[in-house]
Every structure is written in structure tokens, then in C-alpha cells.
Amino acid sequence: MSKNKGLVIELTSLLDVILIMLFWVMMVSSDKADKAEQKAEEKVQAANAQAQEMIDKANEDAEKYINERINDQREQLDKLDEYVKTLEGFQNGEMLSISITYVNGADELSFARSGKQLSSVALTSYLDIGKEIRKVLEQLPNKDGIILAAFIYDGNTALYRDVLAVRSALESLRGDFPGIYFAYINTSGQS
């Protein structure tokens, strides 16, 4: 034991190296922490931007949906207004009457609106009834709107084939005039 007593180990330079390495590790760790924090902040900003885009898109979609619903409601109100005007006109006698009458030994197809005679034509085998009815409908002021019409005939005097031909022509015009509504009236009391 006496041999080692005189030996002095100098630790100052070792401590200097350890401290330098410790500072270096702390600097590297601090730099990595700063970079990690910066990356995390960038990710948060990107996520916020993406969330804002999603919110803007959702707001845009919601606004579009609401505007579409408002427009649908306006269209429905306009149609309702048109129905009300049509019904008011009907109460005031504004209705298209299509009649088959027996005149001078032949059936005649006549058209009247609001009690005023519009036109009439003899029912013959070569007459295009649909074309004649279309002509009258095209002259109406509200041809694209709602049209209330009554097909009136006397089942005792009108020829059955003429009644069927007029009814068929009226039904075929529904596609071109979707707002037209017909009533079929047999004045003889028989259906």
C-alpha cells in the first residue's frame, strides 16, 4: 500500500473533457428539441389550414344547400300562387269549354273561354282533332301555366266515336301541356 500513496492523479483535464462533452450533448439535444418543436408547429399549422378548408367547404356546401331549398320553396310558392290565380279565375268563369254539339245533322266541336266563343269546327273523319285542340290551347294567354278545361257533350246526340276521338286527343296533349286539367261532362246524365 505504500507504493500507491505518492501517486496523484490529475482529473482537471478529464473534467474539462467531460464538461465539454456534456455541453455538446445539451446543445445537440436543444437543437433537436427546437427542430422537433418547429416540425410540430408546422404540422399544427397544416392541420389548422386543412381544418379551415374543411370548414369553408362545409359552409359553402351548407349555403348552397340552403339556397337550393330556398329556391325550391320559392318555386313551390310561385306554383301555389299560380294555382290560386287559376282557381280564382275558375270562380270567375274562366275555363276552357270544349263541346260536341249536334248542328245541322253533324257533330261540331266548339271552343269557348269565359263564355266567349273562340272557334268551332265540324267533326269529320278527316279532321285532326288533336291539331284543332292544340291550336286553341296555343292561343291561350296562360298556355304554359295551369289550364282548367271541360269537355262537354250530350251522350244521347253526340256520336260515340267522336267522343272517344276527342277524349283520346285531350289525353295525348297532356304531355305537351302538363298544367292542363280536364273534366269530362256528359249532359245526358249517362256516363
Describe this structure in words.
The chain is an alpha/beta fold. The chain has two domains: 9-86; 93-186, Nucleotidyltransferase, domain 5. The protein has three helices and five strands. It has a five-stranded mixed sheet with strand order 3-2-1-4-5, with helices on one face. The chain is rod-shaped, with a radius of gyration of 46 Å.
The topology string of helices and strands comes to HEEEHEHE
Let me know the average pLDDT. Answer: 81
Can you name the CATH architecture of the largest domain?
2-Layer Sandwich
Supply the CATH class of the largest domain.
Alpha Beta
Enumerate how many helices there are, as a single number: 3
Low-confidence stretches: none
Write the CATH fold name of the largest domain.
Answer: Nucleotidyltransferase, domain 5
Q: In order across it, which strands form the biggest sheet?
A: 3-2-1-4-5
The largest sheet is: 5 strands, mixed
How would you sum up this structure in a few lines?
This protein has 191 residues and is an alpha/beta fold. Helix 2 crosses helix 3.
